[in-house]
Amino acid sequence: MDKALGNKIPEFNKKPGGAGGSGLAGLSSFGSGDHRSKLEIVVIILVAVVIIGGSEILLRLFNVPQYIIPKPTQIVTALFTEWHFLWPHIVITLYELLTGFFIGGSIGFILAAVITQFPFVEKVVTPYILLLVTTPMLALVPLLILRFGFGSEPRIIAVALASGPMVMINAATGFRRVDLAKIALARSFGASTLQIFTKIRIPMAMPMIIVGLMVGSIFGLLTAIGAEMVGGAEGLGNRLTYYSALIRMPQFFAIIFLLATIGISIYIFFFWLGKKWASWEA
Amino acid sequence: MTKTKMAIHSATKFYETRSGSTHALDNVSLDVREGEFLCILGPSGCGKSTLLWSMAGLHALSGGEVKLGSETITQPHPEIAMIFQDANLLPWRNLAKNIALPFELKRKPPDQARIDSLLERVNLKGFENKFPRELSGGMQQRASIVRSLAVDPSVLLMDEPFGALDAFTRDEMNLLIQEIWMETRKTIVFVTHSISEAIFLADRVVVMSARPGRIASIYDIDIPRPRPVDIQTKPDFIARVLEIKGSIDHGRGAAAGLAIT
């Protein structure tokens, strides 16, 4: 007997996990498994320890200079000693990301919800949205800086332009998945158009909306950092250029570490949101 | 006889599609009596679902009208509840929240006492926190019956509700719906493409023919209730099945799409 099937109860009407393609399961590697076992967590941590410890040992053994690759201990030290210099930049980057993402995400979500109700409008608008999705919004930043200066505005606009279409295109995919039987069900109990929207359409689109928010916010982070590298004197992206120009590699890598932390936090947040609101699909 | 609950007067329906218009219903007139169990029987594409959806106020007719008492049905009516194919539960809500949906839509607090007794009645007590995917097909359909009965409608419209279930579960569900009907005496209009299911459940079987959908004939089923499942193997029952099948075959050559069982 197949060992993997041995203790699974054959279930009615159930698609194999993760094979759906769309939805959260397709995007996240966490999607298919129910809970990570203790062993998995221990192994993952162990791998991290081996990589960090191993690189520390190798870098010391071969005497690699700090300006090529700093040792993990130097990076951690830099993170702590430079923290009060880095902190304001973290706040600025997060402010740009959150404001831009909020603006872009809301517009994207509303557009998706409205446009999918009108097939003709949707067909006309979609190519332009695709254009926005596929064109790197970073390219617009120099132009935006000319118009809005070196403050946060051009970056917020760039983040909104990068994340909005991502949210929209995914949310639209979700809203397009109409199940007429479910709408008829709500109608048969006297639901209004607004109720059908809030009780049927939005929940049904929720898995794709969350995927859109996740991808959109990661795109937003990318664009925020890129925009900060282009011009201005603030933000983590700006610090990257600053420290690399000074060849202060421990600080440079400390920022990379911070960026990775922000990225992972975004992922975990939306993964948690997905578990909460869209677990019925995955 | 008893008085008329719902009346359909020369209902006609065309579907406008890209390839032209489809004539789904042609001049269908039918009286549904108060408290009766009426089965509408026909092959796929005979317009029986179209007729039912029009009775639910979900579809506009191209001609004719549907009346509930003295009211003309043009939109869903609180006295009429619909039970759909495949249970049609919302997968993102647990059982309790699925059953509360009609109350939520009507902005009323759920009648918890009634819901609890209905759940008890269909043996779903204790499953309130389960999600639809965790339930079998039969349990899902029982939950959807509770959802419809919870708002205490006087008419239940059922659109091939047990079509997707296996034969055993189907027998079980037919018994359950018979019991519920005998206890509540609601008017039930039940659409099916199974001749024996129709005869087993109905007071009257309305046979429809296809393209365009018309009423071909109406059979009175005077078998005393409660009808046990094994009645379906009795000669009298089989004779009724064959009679209906014969009339359909006579009308359209081969009875493709109509199952005896």
Protein architecture, described:
Chain A has 282 residues and is an all-alpha fold. Chain A has one domain (73-277): MetI-like fold (Orthogonal Bundle), CATH 1.10.3720. Helices cover 74% and strands 0% of the residues of chain A. Chain B folds into two domains: 4-79 and 155-252, P-loop containing nucleotide triphosphate hydrolases (Rossmann fold, 3-Layer(aba) Sandwich); 89-152, no CATH class. In chain B, α3 (112-121) runs antiparallel to α4. The model of chain B has no long low-confidence stretch (mean pLDDT 85). At the A-B interface, α9 and α10 of A face β6 and α2 of B.
Write the layout of secondary structure elements.
The complex is a heterodimer of chains A (282) and B (261).
Chain A lengths: L2 H4 L16 H5 L10 H24 L10 H10 L1 H33 L3 H16 L6 H8 L4 H24 L3 H9 L4 H38 L5 H10 L3 H29 L5
Helix pairs in contact in A: 4-12, 5-8, 5-10, 6-8, 7-8, 8-10, 9-10, 10-11, 10-12, 11-12
Chain B lengths: L3 E14 L2 E14 L3 E5 L6 H8 L7 E6 L2 E2 L7 E4 L11 H11 L6 H10 L15 H14 L4 E5 L7 H18 L2 E6 L2 H7 L2 E6 L4 E7 L14 H18 L9
Helix pairs in contact in B: 2-4, 3-4, 6-7
| Span of the ends, CA to CA of chain A | 27 Å
The number of strands of chain B is 10
Overall mean pLDDT of chain A stands at 85
**CATH class (first level) name of the largest domain in chain B:** Alpha Beta
Order of helices and strands of chain A: HHHHHHHHHHHH
Shape category of chain A: flat
Helix content of chain A: over 70%
Oligomer: heterodimer
Number of discrete helical segments of chain B: 7
End-to-end gap of chain B = 31 Å
| Top-tier CATH class of chain A | Mainly Alpha
Helix content of chain B: 25-40%
Using the 3D structure, state the CATH architecture of chain A: Orthogonal Bundle
Give the name of the CATH architecture of the largest domain in chain B.
3-Layer(aba) Sandwich
* The CATH topology of chain A: MetI-like fold
Biggest beta sheet summary of chain B = 6 strands, mixed
